[in-house]
């Protein structure tokens, strides 16, 4: 089946939504899969095509995961003609074949290179070869380019130098005439959150994530709380979920439709975190409008992993047409700490298109905590000190994890022998299908599969109190009682 691309509705929305780079792409945060976190250099045609089949078979493509992104290690050495072709052993029929196969079943094809003389795994990089590499990407039908930062030959150190280096590829892609989304991976260096949106659809704001909720690591050196490292000298590779959240907090508001702060690919299902930690990781990435790129090996997925990433009520936060990140409205570091001296709680809050508010209470303390979120705090972004008009209203509270798919049903999908029996399971569950009803439409119509389950009410000027387990998050949609569905496109 061939799905229509998102380019048409995106172009229409240009007229009423402020946009970043303005190529009409990534109007909501891109979703899909990238091989790096689970398989690193072990890439092949078979991996990409068998994974794309899994995305379809598990119902994930129909929830919006429509990019298949190939990371590093696909290259053979740059030829005498100046072009880099695919490694013939890994990709015996070439990249165009992979791309055609993916397109024929409705996927966008994502590719990888680095703005350096070599890529991070030391294959041919694109620095000073941007024109020819972009030409190849366009000829192969690439839709999305993850563009890394390794071996940059010292061409960094000020925002202007980094901007210029990455802009060469942005211009080269544009010159091909093919509309290719650009996803910068320069690890938050040189204040990319201040200039990435001018040339790219997404920009990585930290060093690489690793499969840990909160463990600090010497390799993820940038400590935003450490005055000795104000310039983030070594963004590194072992950044925890909590580290990334703390790093993005001061500039979470920079994302707008078409340009997103990228918190890095997901670690859900990789084995280093608990179920509750993965749920928190996924929900925060959704509410903070990071691209949602699955990073696990889909061929060995557990039912618990599937039922985290296939929750439409959480994905609807990511794909909400308002297109602005939740921001952190409270942080408490006076809570019990673990052996690494890590322990804190956060409240994140963000406006949604229909006037609802996403509210996340994150407990990263070393014990269960009774947390409270007052309307005064929750609506700080609309007016500090209780001045926001929303504080005087009553709000119904909906738990967005309440309708998580059961293990038994997720297992039935994983076990289904063919498409028909898998579809039967999903149909019986009346599971959300975004290919049938887009998130935008489902939200407008009040499709209850996107709204979780009502668990209480907060009275005017009131607060929401809840026990939040150690290393977990409560994720809510606050809905105004008798509220009018307002349009909230204003910046
Ligand atoms: C690499 O991938 C292939 C299949 O895609 C798999 O059979 C093999 O075990 C993988 N090797 C490693 C080291 O992960
Ligand atoms: C979702 O809807 C599309 C369009 O109607 C359909 O082709 C597809 O099979 C459905 N997906 C599932 C998982 O049932
Ligand atoms: C921070 O959390 C601790 C422990 O739950 C609590 O006693 C304290 O009042 C909180 N501080 C603030 C400012 O909320």
From TrEMBL:
Gene Ontology cellular-component annotations: extracellular region
One Gene Ontology MF term: alpha-galactosidase activity
Coiled coil stretches, renumbered: none
InterPro entries, A to Z: Aldolase_TIM, GH, Glyco_hydro_27, Glyco_hydro_b, Glyco_hydro_melibiase, Melibiase_C
Cellular location(s): Secreted
EC code: 3.2.1.22
Every Alpha galactosidase C-terminal domain range: 343-407
Keywords of the record: Disulfide bond, Glycoprotein, Glycosidase, Hydrolase, Secreted, Signal
UniProt entry tagged with the keyword Glycoprotein: yes
Predominant subcellular localization, coarse grouping: secreted
Endpoints of the signal sequence: 1-20
Catalytic activity: Hydrolysis of terminal, non-reducing alpha-D-galactose residues in alpha-D-galactosides, including galactose oligosaccharides, galactomannans and galactolipids
GO biological process: melibiose catabolic process
A Pfam family it matches: Melibiase_C
PANTHER family: ALPHA-GALACTOSIDASE MEL1 (PTHR11452:SF75), ALPHA-GALACTOSIDASE/ALPHA-N-ACETYLGALACTOSAMINIDASE (PTHR11452)
Similarity remark: Belongs to the glycosyl hydrolase 27 family.
Name of the molecule in the record: Alpha-galactosidase
């Amino acid at each position: 089946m061939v799905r229509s691309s998102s380019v048409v509705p995106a172009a229409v929305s240009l007229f009423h939504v402020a946009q970043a780079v303005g190529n009409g792409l990534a109007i909501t945060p891109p979703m899909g899969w990238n091989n790096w976190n689970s398989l690193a250099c072990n890439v092949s045609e078979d991996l990409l095509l068998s994974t794309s089949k899994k995305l379809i078979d598990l119902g994930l493509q129909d929830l919006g995961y429509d990019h298949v992104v190939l990371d590093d290690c696909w290259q053979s050495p740059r030829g005498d003609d100046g072009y880099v072709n695919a490694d013939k052993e890994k990709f015996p029929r070439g990249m165009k074949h992979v791309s055609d196969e993916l397109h024929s079943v409705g996927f966008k094809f994502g590719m990888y290179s680095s703005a350096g003389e070599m890529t991070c795994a030391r294959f041919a990089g694109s620095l000073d070869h941007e024109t020819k590499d972009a030409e190849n990407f366009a000829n192969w039908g690439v839709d999305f380019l993850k563009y890394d930062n390794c071996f940059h030959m010292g061409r960094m150190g000020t925002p202007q130098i980094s901007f210029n280096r990455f802009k060469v590829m942005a211009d080269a892609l544009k010159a091909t005439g093919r509309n290719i989304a650009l996803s910068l991976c320069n690890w938050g260096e040189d204040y990319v959150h201040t200039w990435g949106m001018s040339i790219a659809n997404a920009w990585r704001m930290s060093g690489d994530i690793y499969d840990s909720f909160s463990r600090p690591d010497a390799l993820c050196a940038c400590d935003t709380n450490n005055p000795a490292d104000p310039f983030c000298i070594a963004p590194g590779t072992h950044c925890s979920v909590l580290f990334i959240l703390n790093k993005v907090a001061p500039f979470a508001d920079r994302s707008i439709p078409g340009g997103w702060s990228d918190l890095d690919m997901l670690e859900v299902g990789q084995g280093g975190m608990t179920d509750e930690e993965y749920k928190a990781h996924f929900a925060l990435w959704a509410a903070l409008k990071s691209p949602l790129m699955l990073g696990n090996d889909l061929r060995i997925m557990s039912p618990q992993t599937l039922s985290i990433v296939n929750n439409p009520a959480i994905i609807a936060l990511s794909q909400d047409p308002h297109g602005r990140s939740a921001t952190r409205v409270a942080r408490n570091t006076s809570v019990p700490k673990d052996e690494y001296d890590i322990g804190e709680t956060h409240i994140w809050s963000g406006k949604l298109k229909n006037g609802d508010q996403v509210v996340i209470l994150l407990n990263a303390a070393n014990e269960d905590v009774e947390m409270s979120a007052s309307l005064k705090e929750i609506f700080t972004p609309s007016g500090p000190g209780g001045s926001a008009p929303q504080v005087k209203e009553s709000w119904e509270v909906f738990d967005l994890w309440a309708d998580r798919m059961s293990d038994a049903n997720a297992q039935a999908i994983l076990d289904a022998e063919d498409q028909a029996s898998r579809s039967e399971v999903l149909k019986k569950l009346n599971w959300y299908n975004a290919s049938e009803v887009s998130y935008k439409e489902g939200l407008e119509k009040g499709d209850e599969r996107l709204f979780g389950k009502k668990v209480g009410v907060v009275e005017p000027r009131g607060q929401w109190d809840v026990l939040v387990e150690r290393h977990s998050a409560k994720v809510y949609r606050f809905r105004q009682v008798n509220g009018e569905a307002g349009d909230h496109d204003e910046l």
